[in-house]
Amino acid sequence: MVDWGMQIDEAAVEAAAEKGRFTGIVSVRRGEETVFERCYGLASRAFGVPVVPQTRFGLASGSKTFTALGVLRLVEQGRLALSDPVRPILGTDLPLIDDAVTIEHLLSHTSGIGDYLDEEADWDASDYVLPVPVHTLAETAGFLPVLDGFPQAFTPGERFSYCNGGYVVLALVVERVSGTGYHEFLQAEVFDRAGLLATGFPRSDDLPGDAAVGYLDVDGGRTNVLHLPVRGNGDGGAYSTVADLHAFWRALVAGRILGPDLLAEMIRPRHDVPEEGLRYGLGVYRDAIGPALLMEGYDAGVSMRSVHDPVTDTTASVLGNSSEGAWPIAGLLLDLTA
């Protein structure tokens, strides 16, 4: 077990921040105490706005944990089961998704469906990877043309293969089962239940003043506004703060979002992910050997990792607003396998 409060080497953190030319925030909080917190650089380079503890940052794929919780809330309400096939919910949409794909397959990245954003393909965060204009991707239904046309890659349940598209399909499931928009459902069933005041899905072309602008590089002025959906969805794009992330993890572990049985099912490790040195449950990573829970995100203008140790009630988060800047610090401060 890593005791972050005893092992923080401030000089090493500063050196890592300088090495990565990091702009963002590093925070370690235990219970009600802030053990360590440093802000670096600018939230807006164009207007010279500095990063402060209250700055909201994009989470990229870290948001998948929220999507999983939205689905699991429907399970807890008896409106959905993990073993349910997704095909009856999709109807005639996305016909190449195999009839055997279940909700659990999608949550655990074992569905085998073809992915619109292949994690193993040769692409860079600064590439224009979306095949449609980003302004059309404000609501979940707008993603249907993006998700369609990818053949099933392997038999459902055969193996773990990280799948972005599967989590957008889960957002469709949330909408069609609940009769409520994905963003609205997560607000009511996840963010409000956890008491989060600064977490949500703002549009990239209408960011609030306390949100960090995402930049493609560690310097320069090019932003990510043309590289990502104008509004995040099931596979990523929420914004949050270090305080809200700590509050989120504490609420999750305390059972304020899910009851104990379903929470245990969510965090139960199902697969080793050796390339990450982690394990995976349902929408959340686990430490390779210990109880720590982890979310991570990487995209154009976003690099972040947040780890929570439920034994010591400690959250360590690194949130950055460039594509690569957070990684030297994340590796130094948050590598639970060391």
Task: Walk me through the topology.
Elements: H1 4-7, H2 10-19, E1 24-30, E2 33-40, E3 42-44, E4 49-50, E5 57-58, H3 64-76, H4 87-90, H5 103-107, H6 144-147, H7 164-178, H8 182-194, E6 239-240, H9 242-253, H10 260-267, E7 271-273, E8 278-280, E9 285-287, E10 293-299, E11 302-309, E12 314-320, H11 327-333
Antiparallel strand pairs: 1-2, 1-12, 3-4, 5-6, 7-8, 8-9, 9-10, 10-11, 11-12
CATH superfamily: DD-peptidase/beta-lactamase superfamily
CATH class: Alpha Beta
Under CATH, the topology can be stated as Beta-lactamase
Through-space gap between termini: 10 Å
Largest sheet entry: 8 strands, antiparallel
Given the C-alpha coordinates, what overall shape results? globular
Helical percentage: 25-40%
* Structural class determined from secondary elements: alpha+beta
The largest beta-sheet arranges its strands as 2-1-12-11-10-9-8-7
Total DSSP E strands? 12
Domains (count): 1
Query: What string, H for helix and E for strand, traces the elements in order?
Result: HHEEEEEHHHHHHEHHEEEEEEH
**Number of helices, counting only DSSP H or I runs of 4 residues or more:** 11
CATH A-level architecture = 3-Layer(aba) Sandwich
* Low-confidence region ranges: none
Oligomer: single chain
Can you walk through the features of this model?
This protein is of the alpha+beta class. It has a single domain (4-333), classed as DD-peptidase/beta-lactamase superfamily (Beta-lactamase). It is 28% helix and 16% strand. The chain has 11 helices and 12 strands. It has helices at 4-7, 10-19, 64-76, 87-90, 103-107, 144-147, 164-178, 182-194, 242-253, 260-267, 327-333; strands spanning 24-30, 33-40, 42-44, 49-50, 57-58, 239-240, 271-273, 278-280, 285-287, 293-299, 302-309, 314-320. The strands form 3 sheets. Strands 2-1-12-11-10-9-8-7 form an 8-stranded antiparallel β-sheet, with helices on both faces. Strands 3-4 form a two-stranded antiparallel ribbon. A hairpin with a 2-residue loop joins strand 10 (293-299) and strand 11. Helix 3 packs across helix 8. The protein is globular, with a radius of gyration of 19 Å. The protein starts with a helix and ends in a 5-residue tail after the last helix. The mean pLDDT is 93.
